[in-house]
Amino acid sequence: MLTIKILGSGCANCKKLEAVAREAATQANVAAEFVKVSDMKEIMAYDVMSTPALVINDKVMSSGRIPATADVTKWLATA
Fold it and tell me: Which residue in 17, 20, 24, 34 has the fewest CB atoms around it within 10 Å?
């Protein structure tokens, strides 16, 4: 099972990123645990300069933007 973390304050973009990631996991038929991270110290530990950020199995895949569902699907397939 993959661990997918959404780093951010819980803003509208963070929620949109989570929706995109969940849709991608469904399309890829991947079992994943979703974790929301809003603690700034924990976010900074990933060297992320802007949120929202997407982390798959402790690897930062994107930050400061909302990637396309197709991109997230590709990342999940190679994780």
Answer: 34
pTM of the entire predicted model: 0.94
Q: What is the pLDDT of residues 6-22, one digit of tens each?
A: 999 999 999 999 999 99
* Distance separating alpha carbons of residues 34 and 76, to the nearest angstrom: 13
CA separation for the pair 34, 72 (Å, rounded): 14
20 flagged as catalytic? no
Catalytic residue among 3, 9, 10, 11: 11
Segment (H or E) for 53: strand 53-56
Active site residue 14: yes
